[in-house]
Amino acid sequence: MIRSAPRHPPPVLPSSAISLALVTGPDGVWAAAPKVLSRRMRGSNAGRKRKAFIHAFLSKEKEKERRQSVAATEVTLSMCADAGKVDRAKLSQTEFNIIEFDSETFMILMEYLQSGSCPLTCETIPGLICAAEHYDLPELLQACFHHAKQHFRLSVVCSMLNMLENYYWRYNSASELVNAILQFIDSRAAQLFSRREFLDLSESMFQMILGRDLNISEVSKFQVMLQWANYKIEMSTNVDPRELECIMNRLTRDLKLQKIPPQELIRVILPTKTISNQRILETLLWQADTGMYRIQQSHIEECRARTRAENSESLSWDILETKICNTE
Predict the structure, then answer these.
(1) At CA 222, angle to CA 162 and CA 193, rounded to 5?
(2) Which residues does the UniProt record annotate as the domain BTB (predicted)?
(3) Which pLDDT belongs to residue 186?
(4) Do residues 175 and 168 lie in contact, with contact meaning Cβ atoms separated by under 8 Å?
(5) Residue of 222, 215, 227 whose CA lies nearest to 189
(6) Torsion over CA of 27, 31, 35 and 41, rounded to 10 degrees?
(7) What is the C-alpha to C-alpha distance for residues 204 and 188, in angstroms, rounded to an integer?
(8) Phi, psi of 35, deg, nearest 5
(9) Which of 158, 189, 310, 313 makes an SS bond possible with 214, Cβ 3.0 to 4.6 Å?
């Protein structure tokens, strides 16, 4: 048998030992403070000790109220949040700028959420299709895809690509729409580049189109690149004198010069001075080595005539002439 220890009742203090006293602090707020009157406090310095005790109690109460007030206004973090990486100022703000979509897209989205329907156009679909994925609206997403594929036009595909530039790497639906537009352009590249809308393409989207297997020649690609680059420079202010060369260096990096006939390399590309003579020479040498094109002596003479002012290049053309003579 296990016996429990006898329970001793808590000591009973005399009623005069503990009581509550209503005291007021410096701010005029009344508070209840425990009034402990021990025998020691009944001495000559009892009043001073009593005042110190009450002051300490009020200080603790005020600090407690301050902490509760701060806790009420602070935003608490979940246990999973990394407090060191969280900006509390942003968590406590009450107004937000929705940077995901423009205001027109957001208004159309609100209309769809309220009424279950909204107008669809090729101009508004890029934003709506991303919003539909962002807010998990499968019916709106499907409607956007269906409408876009049925109503693609050369007059709007360039602006659609520009709008999708900031989204296609974040949303699968935007990436799929970009691929659908590029497939639409593949067989219509010549018609697209005959319109002025392509001049408004961003550089990344323009390069994305040119990097595909289009139904246009490489020399036509070069002419389109030069036209686009000149337009961008005309629309810019405080342009560096070498800006055209820099842009063309980026655009022509993947241009297949070896597929361009020698006479077009010399008569179309060489005079623009946007591709170095050295690169053109290397292309002509490769064409002569592989027998892809027959390079005639007249081509060499034309190269010399066009680069006569550049004495440093004369020896290079002599190398090409020697190569031609050896192959013959």
Answers:
(1) 45
(2) 89-151
(3) 95
(4) yes
(5) 215
(6) 0
(7) 19
(8) -105, 105
(9) 189
The length of the chain in residues reads: 328
125-130 — which CB contacts under 8 Å span 24+ positions? 125/160, 125/177, 126/160, 126/163, 126/164, 126/167, 126/174, 126/177, 127/101, 127/102, 127/163, 129/171, 129/173, 129/174, 129/177, 130/100, 130/101, 130/167, 130/170, 130/171, 130/173, 130/174
**Mean pLDDT, rounded, for 164-176:** 92
With 80 as the cut, is the pLDDT of residue 201 above it?
A: yes
CB of 275 closer than 8 Å to CB of 257? yes
Answer with the residue of higher pLDDT: 62 or 149: 149
Residues 321, 302: Cα–Cα separation, whole Å? 12
- Model pLDDT, residue 285: 83
pLDDT of residue 239: 76
